[in-house]
Amino acid sequence: MNTFFFRSTQKVFFLPIFLLGMILAAGCSSTKRATSAEKADDKAESLNESVLMSGLMEKIIDEDWLQARARVSADLNGDKYDVTANIYYQKNEVIMVSARMLGFELARLFITPDSALILSRLDRTYLSYDMDQLGRLVGFPVDMSIVENMLLGNPYLGDDIQWRAGESGEKVRLQTAKGSIVAENQIDLPDFKLSRAIFQDRENQRTLNSLFSQYQPYKDNNFFSYFRTYELNSAADGDMYLEIRFTSIEWDKPFNVDISIPPRYSKMF
């Protein structure tokens, strides 16, 4: 694997973290912190906000274990990549992603509450970051709970939420803002499915548009999005596009994972 390809693979892995860094800048945090809502404008006065919040929180996915397989496509300023990803998730402990192409493992990504590690299998190199370093790399502080919620397809909520009526009676919007960052979740009723999340960083001139679709029931009358897209338009970084299509999901299946740098691996940079 040459240096260019590894840098590109690094971008593929860290693109979701970089995109969702804007959420932290907007003052958002884990969905569990969302406990109240405020009226937004006259158009939304007819919304019963407490009922909406209660219904939304009942649909939050909160699982301890997840194993999944997905097809991932990325377009990074014209450079296109297609890989198969095996994803392993243990709540509050680890997220591991193994990227494969034509049956061969290209790289692995590990995210824990305090660090991130990328292993390049083809040339036996690695990159390692603590969360402070990772935050400097992507330009925002990074919190594992944000990455967990992105994986599970939960809406991005903060302590100060504004409910607004959507384009029709079948949609509502949740908004929050802080400084130059504006975040909006679009929720489809009556099932409270997240259909779109939009983040605008006006100061740095970048916008993230995330779409969630192809929901399937998984248990307890809840739903999981099997298809997501993330599109970033940035004056500084150009245009980036990430597409994730889940092909298999297993819940509540524990696993063991070895988070270590193998012998004879050297640091890439």
Strand order of the largest sheet: 1-8-9-10-11-12-13-14-2-3-4-5-6-7-15
The low-confidence parts are 1-10, 14-45
Largest sheet at a glance?
A: 15 strands, mixed
Number of helices: 4
**What is the count of structural domains?**
1
Based on CA inertia axes, which overall geometry fits? globular
- What's the CATH architecture name? Clam
Query: Which range does the strand content fall in?
Result: over 45%
What is the CATH class name? Answer: Mainly Beta
Label the structural class. Answer: alpha+beta
**In percent, how helical is the residue content?**
10-25%
- CATH topology (level 3) name: outer membrane lipoprotein receptor (LolB), chain A
Tell me the distance between the termini: 14 Å
C-alpha Rg (nearest Å): 19 Å
Report the strand count. 15
